[in-house]
Design brief:
Blueprint (H helix, E strand, L loop, with lengths): L1 H22 L8 E2 L5 H4 L7 H14 L16 H7 L3 E2 L19 H6 L11 H4 L5
Parallel strand pairs: 1-2
Amino acid sequence: MLRRLSSLVIALVICALVAPSFANKKPPATPVNLNTATSEQLQQVPGIGPSTADKILQFRKSYGAFKSVDDLRAVRGIGPKRLEKMRKYLLVTNAPAKKSPSPAKKPAANSSTDATKKPPPAVTKPAADAEEPEEP
């Protein structure tokens, strides 16, 4: 029992030392754009860790660009209180326009391969009287 108690005390001391370092994370100098931010950029925002950053990125990938910071409420684990703490570090601007795929280009004629190709043989019709056998 004494061993369990000492293990518990050690665990609590470690948590007490480690927890403040996460809670006192330095916020970003400028607001983070939800539509362009990477996971690392999102994690600079107080209240967003690796797991929440991944959820935000997955949400953006699945549902498209955020229209407002309030859209974060749809991300699992982000409630009204948490959102209010993060709000001043976040912004939403239009997502960068995706480049439309260019029309498929026809392959360029390659003169080296075209020159080596032989044209299909011409089909000639034999003369009608040449094929018929002669009568004796």
